Amino acid sequence: MAKITKAVIPAAGLGTRFLPATKAVPKEMIPIVDRPTIQYIIEEAAQAGITDLLIITSRTKKAIEDHFDKSYELETELEKSGKTALLEEMKQIRSMMNIQYVRQAEPKGLGHAIYCAKSFVGNEPFAVLLGDDVVYSQKPCLLQMIEKFEEYQASILGVQSVAQSEVSKYGIVSGEQVSDRMWRVHDMVEKPKQEEAPTNVAVLGRYIIMPEIFEHLEKTKPGAGGEIQLTDALKTLAKEQEMYAYDFVGRRYDVGNKMGFLEATVEYALRREDLSEDFIKYLKQLVNR
Ligand code: UTP
């Protein structure tokens, strides 16, 4: 039985929804409390058993590589000053898994970014995690999806229902329900107009994809927004082989958008033992002012 050990994080987008912060700082490096968003995503992948990761980067994303590399100066200083807990944390960040990088020369779309992973992936099913979507759940979102993959042996899209007014921001799927939280996908459309969306079931930044996707990506022409869309390639793959949508359990934050980022910041801070007590006090004072 195929096992999922490889994952791809496309991180070469321009992050225009978060300008000016993303002009010089990669959107994936913007922190939620004290960790860059991408670190939460990689921790989720590690907890799901991923051992090999490819990050699709671009010219302006060097800070991502630095974050997961060894910092000799910092580690030497922490060692000298006896800050062992911090030192261990720094070592742990860079030893979560094997990480490779490839550059997407131009931001031609998510589908094009995934195509850059072709030789890394080879002929195995693989996971895709988008840095925009952070999911808080008891069982890591990707692990839930891998368990579904083990059962169905087919591509699995992580979905949740969104407000009807939000459908035009997402890839939307339609299909038939086959069991609790599982749908067989019949069709997909990228960023439909509200009145044209077949459902309000949106793909939210987590995928397990069969390797045949690359044959479809090769043939995919630019779609919505003039970009090569992963949704368009998945749509044609779904005509050829079974594909499922799984309504994952968890609170998902769209951190690529300002409001989602603020919600994540507040809620993650409230979950932190070292911060929550003081933070709750502060929030209470603020609303009672
Ligand atoms: P988004 O469209 O949400 O990201 O793409 P973006 O382009 O960075 O953001 P905005 O809309 O301009 O604010 C979804 C994911 O696909 C990656 C992005 O980095 C993001 O994780 N992506 C997108 C690429 O890697 N390359 C691309 O050409 C486009």
Structure description:
- It contains eleven helices and 13 strands.
- By secondary structure, it is of the alpha/beta class.
- The radius of gyration is 19 Å and the shape is globular.
- The chain has helices at residues 37-47, 62-67, 72-80, 84-94, 110-115, 118-121, 141-152, 213-219, 230-240, 258-270, 276-288, and strands spanning 6-10, 31-32, 35-36, 52-57, 98-103, 126-129, 133-136, 155-161, 171-179, 182-190, 201-209, 243-247, 251-254.
- The termini are far apart.
- The model has no long low-confidence stretch (mean pLDDT 94).
- The structure holds uridine 5'-triphosphate.
- The site of uridine 5'-triphosphate has 22 residues, from helix 5.
- Uridine 5'-triphosphate (UTP) binds at residues 10-18, 27, 56, 104, 107-110, 112-113, 130-132, 256.
Quick structural overview:
The chain has 289 residues and is an alpha/beta fold. The chain has helices at residues 37-47, 62-67, 72-80, 84-94, 110-115, 118-121, 141-152, 213-219, 230-240, 258-270, 276-288, and strands at 6-10, 31-32, 35-36, 52-57, 98-103, 126-129, 133-136, 155-161, 171-179, 182-190, 201-209, 243-247, 251-254. Helix content is 36%, strand content 25%.
